[in-house]
Amino acid sequence: MTAVLFPATVARAEDISYPKADEAHRLMTDAFACFMRLIESLHPDDWSKPTPCAEWDVHDMVAHQAGGYLSGVSYREMFRQYTRIPKPGQLPEDAINALQVNERKHMTPAELIAELKQTGPKAIHNWAYGFRAVKWIAVPHAIAGFMSLRYLMWVIHSRDTWMHRLDICRAVNRPFEQTHEHDGRIVELVVRDAAKKLSKRLANCAITLCLTGIAGGIWRIGKGEPAAEMKMDALDFNIFISGRFSHEEGMKRARMSGDRSLVENAFRDLLILY
Fold first, then answer.
1. Contacts by residues 189-193 (CB-CB < 8 Å, ≥ 24 positions apart)
2. How far is CA 29 from the centre of its chain?
3. Using one digit for the tens of pLDDT, what is the confidence trace for 207-260?
4. Has this prediction a pTM greater than 0.90?
5. Is 173 left (phi over 0), alpha (psi -120 to 50) or beta?
6. Residue 217: CB partners within 8 Å, gap ≥ 6?
7. What is the CATH number assigned to the segment(s) 21-172?
8. Which of 72, 140, 206, 246 allows an S-S link to 222, with CB 3.0 to 4.6 Å?
């Protein structure tokens, strides 16, 4: 196997730092602000348009966000939602999502926006600095592995809002507002999670992941000198690794050099939690 040479300055994805409370608060605040600017600018007919999440239109997706932020307002509401019993074969978060959406089917776009404005800032503060009695709790998860509530609050909540903003932009044909400081850090934390799974799949091999665009970057994943490179648009990468693209579609959008089969096998059925 011939190694593919890349710049020595490429960072190791496994070394990406984990956010602390202040950064988590900033990421959530910025993700929320961007999301609110988008939905407040939607036209009336945009709210019924289908999204990449097959069962949801834009109204449903915003309802999910409104329910999610409500869960951060108090322990009582958090436990009410988190103890939702899933149907056979249903993931726990799917049961929670269904509750959030169904409870808001009757609400107008203006009412959803008003609810988010009321609950969002309080939930963000609680997720970053509050709920200390439960942040240490960790539970098994089908996608994330063994996941702590702190990880959910400090990483996943901002990522979820970020990803659904991208979903809505795609659904209504709007440009996706980006900065490298905010969106680049969201993507970096996705790469951090992907590297944990990919490192095991790559065994003693390594690849270089090059994500292009404002939110992109270059990272080495695995051990030793990279044997392959995968280059993809950063937004497409998130759509792919969240399961919104099939493996075949993701590979079509990627440009690969070196050991192509190493990359294809490493990313097969790979999912990251959003």
1. 189/16, 189/19, 189/155, 189/159, 190/159, 190/237, 190/238, 190/241, 190/272, 191/13, 191/16, 191/217, 191/219, 191/221, 192/13, 192/14, 192/16, 192/18, 193/144, 193/155, 193/272, 193/273
2. 15
3. 999 999 999 999 999 999 999 999 999 999 999 999 999 999 999 999 999 999
4. yes
5. left
6. 11, 184, 187, 188, 191, 211, 234
7. 1.20.120.450
8. 206
Identity of the amino acid at 94:
D
Count, residues in the chain: 274
Superfamily of domain 11-16+182-267: SCP2 sterol-binding domain (3.30.1050.10)
Q: What are 175-204's pLDDT values in tens digits?
A: 999 999 999 999 999 999 999 999 999 999
Cα 13 to Cα 190: distance, rounded to the nearest angstrom: 10
- Domains of the chain, residue spans: 11-16+182-267, 21-172
